[in-house]
Amino acid sequence: MAMRISPMIPTVANLLLAALWGFSVFAGWGLEAFCSEDGCADRMDEVARVSSLFATVAACCTAGAWIAPCARATRVVSPPSWSRRWPPG
């Protein structure tokens, strides 16, 4: 019996992480939480630019997993040949 996980679970998780990232970068959550000194906003902008590269890669991977038919194909994996001979005797 194979346990199947709906593809919606990781998709919703990715969307929630994307929303959290977006709020921290674009809505000013990061500035409010971490910046209390002068010049901090400039550093946070630099960090936001770098993290946007990783966010773009993550979005492309998520979209690619949904678009590629081989990523959605159900594969049946047979047990190894030695398990058919177990227990010995």
TrEMBL record:
It comes from the Bacteria. This is Uncharacterized protein. It comes from Streptosporangium subroseum.
